[in-house]
Design brief:
heterotetramer, A mainly alpha, B alpha/beta, C alpha+beta, D mainly alpha, A: mainly alpha, about 70% helix, globular, D: mainly alpha, Methane Monooxygenase Hydroxylase, Chain G, domain 1, about 65% helix, flat
């Protein structure tokens, strides 16, 4: 088949996955938050409220779209695209299985980080263009947070790259196969400080509570999306959830061995064609469930405390841990050679 | 709707899509909580609380009028508040509805003798559903929302029937 | 609460050469009449002299037909005495502002001038507080309320477009918001705010963080307006911010002004309760109790012991439900949704109990002059015991979820610190005052109902920040649960209300009754002229004083702080705007 | 260019097309009643006072500068990290990067002392 046709089919597959993810995650969030807060969550629309999010999306589609007059029109219309497209592009490098990847990029990890750092640009455009004090403050906060936590996130991913020796996500997943001491799966989660640093900076990067600075309902009304209505707001809302999915997928890929089950050899898994992608998505949803539990309980950190945490604690400690991992790898190599 | 200009008033595409979106509008009403007085505690906090959960019906709290369909006026509206209510109502996108919750918002309630109080919020904005009570119980507020959904359904059918009858 | 002896007061006043008519009014206390010219020297003598009446309880007006009586209700905590300084002003006269002696009078003075048609001079922010520009002075006897048939035919009232415009123009009278008086150092004791002209911005630019001084960044004027998810009702705070830091702040209220005090002058004495319910709609039992106590003092009715015990029981139940509606949204302001819903589950259970006994979930009309409406039913008694069983465990759970959370503590510690002197100067009472280290509780120091027979402690904390206020209120909830247990176990026999006439006509007179509502000292100053409706009813809103203290503490915090700070002061707009 | 390049170009172009398609369907299907009041900016129900597009606080831009410095450092670190695990590479690879990182941490310490990290 023509190469362009394959690319278009893969794009449609990624788009379908993202939309389904968005719909399922919004429903899952409202249900998990409901059960967490001693109430039921959506129940009336469809069995157990399953049709709730499709109805929300259809309603958003059919609402009027007023453009305030004091708004910078070009940026106002462009901002949702600049926020939505990068979070769609990040699906390219995700390793659903060693054969099922949209594009097996040799620099998969770096590509995802590069694409994810365009999103603050879109948020700033949205906040500044809507000429509204609340959205300006929301945008400034969101950009301040994501800019501050881009660096510790990169640094926290370095130990994994050093252990795996490659940036290709497929290789990282294969490097985590097998077991150590016959019992413990050879995942990179045992490098716990790197996991913690990556988890915290990832939480802030995707604007999860306790760091949901961008649209802190109780302080900044609706954050940077105050002036957005109907489908534009829908896109911003959808891309926030797909960011969460991407962050959870990265977490699973880097630390929880991608699509591999702990004690099952990788070859047996990939024999059954469709199993690895399903396993990968299921593991990602388990991680997202924990993110939602955190969202339902913890209060919000103040902006300057969070930024101080970023620059004064996360960055120095991630650099220090980088050095320690280097030493550990070197020592383990020397021992392996010695034996 | 631009679609009815393109494909004509009574094309099946327009009618079917209107019916579909009408169901969606009814099933996901996002309200801009506008808690002014005592009704806010009963109607907004308790109604979305653990026992009478609004989220069951797909009714969800949005802080900005740009993203909300229903404006619940919960409390007394006086002269200083009237322009704010009017402005927030104007800033809501088009298929918008107003629920006047409680005696104060419907007719001025126990304070209607006081000259500073506007006797009913329908003097300022067109109201769809009045919920009596001072304060109305959370079940009454949810019943008001169910009646609002029926009213939206009736409005759409009447509009479509009107369109169909024009064509014959 | 013993009354001061008039001779000492007249002696002190003669010492400074003020001719004052000091007299002892029955059921009220010592009243000292002073001419407007030397009102300032009298007040200064009362405050700084050896009389030491350092606390302004309330400042309000009474229209006596030919002149406006401005009443300063002062209190000396050391000697536990109250005194009333009355100054007579003609209609439309000039009221000199006393905020440099008693800063607690900042907002009440504006309301007094606006409601009685006086002009205010020497005040940092002399604008109207509650009503819009075109409104007449409502509390004067001259201005009537709507006639019966106008009210009956609602459709006649047409809101002309310019009415909407008229109020819009008065909403934004000035370009930049007048900054509140320069940030008063509440921390290190009271230094009166410097007389900053309203238009002038507070002096001094904040040093840019990078030491780049000449790069002056512009400031935003942000209105955290009537419709905001966390202003606890319709309060509008005009913030002047540089980046995220609040430079100046001014509170606009009056969006819920429903004229409770004016309507009270047309209601019967038994009908005051439902009106007061809608004032502080979270603690309506305490508002009703205050009016009933005042009416009983005028009628000199003796309330049976069982009624007093029932009043304490229902009051404490209402206190817990009111603190819950403070605790939930305060957690929500800080961002955590969980505790908000857990505490509302308990509140649903409490409203069932209140509904069983009184018939209503929020507006009870249960406390009547002479006693209570209905006796407690056996199954309500069983429900209360069942509630107490799981409530103590739930409170500790919620205490640990929110108050024990490091993020919440980091957000609330040393935020909006009020020193003891600052809190007293601004007229704070209740939890806000006890959190700043001053141990005053109306239930224990001026006992009413059956509180002398209860044993309870009054939680006090000393560091005065937002976290201390939360800690004090949570411990108060535990004490209330203890008291409810005592009430249930030891409820005495007897009838639940005294024999009181159908239509109450108390003899002409004046009295003041105070109650410890969850938000502070809720007082009712009742003036009766012998007819079946009160001549003037003044409702002392404890949260109005908390709001103006909060307004002073806002400059210097971040926006995220200002939301949580105002939340920790726990005010209810229905009571502030009355 | 290989399949990867084409896929990325496809994603960018088709992503923008999808966003435009969503706006088009929304324009097709949603009712339109423009009115001057609807076009006013929302500020909690009150007339906004003063401009919004002001010269914002300087502290925010300092963070962006610091970010650029450390982002570049990360770019240098990645090739080093890949080559780190390879056999036959001695300890010198470790010492080189150690010097590079300490220089940058020195820059962070200076920014910290100078107060650039203070948000207020």
């Amino acid at each position: 088949m023509n190469i362009w046709l394959i690319a278009i089919l893969r794009f449609l597959a990624a788009l379908a996955l993202m939309l389904v993810n968005g719909v399922v995650l919004i429903y899952m969030l409202r249900k998990v938050l409901g059960r967490l807060h001693v109430r039921l969550g959506p129940m009336d629309n469809g069995p157990w409220g399953l049709l709730q999010t499709p109805f929300d999306v259809l309603k958003l589609l059919s609402k009027e779209d007023p453009t305030p007059k004091a708004v910078d029109k070009a940026l106002f219309w462009l901002a949702p695209a600049v926020v939505f497209v990068p979070s769609l592009m990040a699906y390219i490098a995700l390793p659903f299985s060693n054969t099922w990847t949209i594009a097996n990029l040799p620099l998969g990890l770096l590509f995802i980080f590069a694409v994810m750092s365009i999103i603050p640009l879109g948020i700033l455009m949205a906040g500044w263009a809507s000429n509204n004090k609340w959205s300006l403050l929301g945008a400034m906060r969101a950009v301040g947070a994501q800019v501050t936590y881009e660096v510790p996130m990169l640094m926290a991913a370095l130990p994994v790259v050093m252990m795996a020796g490659s940036l290709n996500l497929g290789d990282i997943v294969n490097a985590q196969s097998g077991t150590v001491l016959w019992v413990i799966p050879n995942w990179y989660i045992w490098n716990v400080p790197a996991f913690i640093l990556f988890f915290i900076s990832g939480l802030i990067e995707t604007g999860q509570t306790p760091f949901d600075m961008a649209e802190a309902e109780s302080e900044l009304v609706a954050g940077f999306a105050t002036e957005y209505s109907s489908m534009r707001f829908g896109l911003l809302f959808l891309s926030e959830f797909s960011n969460t999915f991407i962050f959870a997928a990265l977490l699973v890929t880097l630390f929880f061995g991608g699509w591999q089950l702990p004690w099952v050899p990788a070859s047996a898994l990939s024999a059954i064609g469709f199993l690895p992608p399903v396993l990968f998505v299921v593991k990602t949803y388990i991680v997202i469930f924990f993110l939602m539990v955190i969202r339902g309980t913890l209060p919000r950190v103040r902006v300057d405390q969070m930024l101080a945490l970023g620059w004064k604690f996360l960055l120095p400690s991630s650099l220090a841990w980088l050095m320690v991992t280097g030493v550990l790898i070197k020592v383990s190599q020397v021992l392996a050679v010695g034996r | 709707m631009a679609i009815d200009k393109l494909t004509g008033e009574n094309s099946t595409l327009f009618i079917r899509s209107e019916q579909l979106f009408d169901v969606a509008r009814r099933k996901s009403l996002w309200y801009m909580g506008f808690g002014i007085a005592c009704c806010a505690i009963e109607g907004l906090m308790h109604a979305s609380g653990p026992r009478y959960d609004f989220d069951r019906m797909g009714v969800f709290f949005r802080a900005s009028p740009r993203q909300s369909d229903v404006m619940i006026v919960a409390g007394t509206v006086n002269w200083k508040m009237a322009p704010v209510v009017k402005r927030l109502y104007d800033e809501m996108p088009e298929p918008k509805f107003v629920v006047a919750m409680g005696a104060c918002a419907s007719t001025g309630g126990p304070f209607r003798e006081y000259p500073n109080v506007v006797m009913g919020v329908d003097k300022v904005v067109p109201v769809d559903v009045y919920i009596p009570g001072c304060p109305p119980r959370p079940e009454a507020v949810q019943y008001g929302f169910i009646r609002l959904m029926d009213k939206i359904k009736a409005q759409t059918e009447e509009r479509l029937a009107h369109a169909r009858s024009d064509s014959h | 609460m013993h009354t001061p002896d008039p001779t000492a007061i007249s002696g002190a006043l003669d010492a400074i050469g003020v001719s004052a008519g000091v007299e002892e009014v029955a059921k009220l206390g010592v009243v000292c009449r002073v001419a407007p010219a030397d009102s300032r020297s009298t007040l200064r003598a009362f405050k700084e002299g050896d009389l030491a009446f350092g606390f302004l309880v309330d400042l309000f007006g009474v229209d006596t037909g030919e002149a406006v009586d401005v009443v300063y209700h002062l209190r000396s905590f050391s000697r536990d005495e109250d005194v009333y300084v009355k100054v007579e002003h003609e209609y439309g006269a000039n009221l000199e502002s006393m905020w440099d002696i008693y800063p607690a009078g900042l907002m009440p003075e504006r309301e007094l001038a606006e409601m009685f048609g006086l002009t205010l001079s020497g005040h940092p922010n002399p604008r109207r507080l509650l009503t819009t520009d075109g409104c007449p002075p409502f509390l004067l006897k001259g201005s009537e309320i709507r006639a019966e048939d106008e009210v009956r035919h609602r459709e006649r009232q047409v809101v002309a477009p310019e009415n909407l415009e008229r109020t819009v123009s008065s909403l934004e009278p000035e370009q930049s918001p007048h900054a509140a008086p320069a940030k008063m150092p509440l921390q290190e004791g009271i230094a009166a705010p410097s007389a900053v002209q309203p238009v002038d911005l507070p002096a001094g630019l904040h040093r840019a963080p990078t030491g780049v001084d000449e790069l002056q960044t512009e400031r935003l004027i942000l209105s955290m307006g009537p419709q905001h998810p966390s202003t606890h009702g319709v309060l509008r705070i005009n913030l002047e911010i540089d980046g995220e830091e609040v430079i100046g702040s001014e509170c606009h209220i009056g969006y819920l002004h429903r004229g409770i005090e004016k309507l009270a002058e047309t209601r019967r004495f038994t009908a005051l309760g439902p009106l007061m319910d809608r004032g502080d709609y979270l603690a309506s039992m305490h508002a009703e109790l205050a009016t009933s106590l005042a009416t009983e003092q005028l009628l000199e009715v003796e309330v049976p012991r069982r009624a007093n015990w029932l009043r304490v029981l229902m009051g404490e139940l209402n206190r817990i439900s009111s603190h819950i509606v403070w605790y939930g949204p305060n957690g929500l302001d800080a961002g955590s949704m969980g505790p908000f819903l857990y505490v509302f589950r308990d509140r649903e259970y409490m409203l069932d109990i209140l509904e069983d006994i009184t018939g209503g979930r929020m507006m009870f009309n249960y406390m009547r002059p002479g006693g209570v409406l209905r006796d407690i039913t056996p199954e309500a008694d069983g429900k209360i015991r069942k509630f107490l069983k799981f409530f103590n465990q739930h409170i500790d759970e919620n205490d640990e979820i929110l108050m024990g959370n490091e993020i919440f503590q980091a957000r609330m510690k040393d935020l909006g610190v009020f020193s003891k002197e600052g809190a007293l100067a601004f007229g704070l009472t209740g939890g806000n005052l006890r959190a700043s280290g001053f141990d005053f509780d109306v239930r224990r120091d001026q006992p009413y109902a059956a509180y002398p027979e209860m044993d309870f402690e009054v939680p006090v904390s000393t560091d005065g920040d937002a976290y201390a206020r939360c800690r004090v209120r949570l411990d108060e909830m535990r004490q209330s649960a203890r008291m409810i247990q005592q009430c249930i176990d030891g409820l005495p026999e007897g009838d639940f209300t005294a024999k009181v006439a159908k239509v109450l006509r108390p003899p002409a007179g004046e009295t003041y009754a105070a109650v410890e509502s969850p938000r502070g000292e809720l007082g009712v100053h009742l003036v009766a002229d012998g007819s079946d409706s009160p001549y003037r009813m003044r409702y002392r809103p404890p949260t109005l004083f908390a709001l103006q203290a909060g307004e002073q503490a806002l400059p210097g915090t971040l926006i995220a702080d200002s939301v949580v700070l105002m939340g920790s002061l726990d005010f209810v707009l229905g009571e502030i705007d009355r | 260019m290989g399949i990867d390049g084409i896929v990325i170009v496809c994603f960018v172009v088709l992503g923008a097309v999808f966003v435009a398609a969503t706006f088009a369907t929304s324009w097709l299907v949603s009712p339109k009643k423009p009115s001057p009041e609807k076009a006013e900016t929302y500020e909690c129900g009150v007339e906004p006072v003063g401009p919004v597009w002001v010269q914002f606080r300087i502290g925010y831009y300092v963070y962006a500068l610091l970010f650029v410095i450390f982002d570049i450092e990360a770019v240098f670190l990645y090739p080093w990290a890949i080559a780190f695990g390879r056999p036959g590479v001695g300890w010198y690879i470790f010492v080189e990067m150690f010097v590079f990182i300490t220089i940058l941490v020195g820059g962070l310490a200076y920014a910290w002392k100078e107060g650039a990290l203070k948000w207020r």
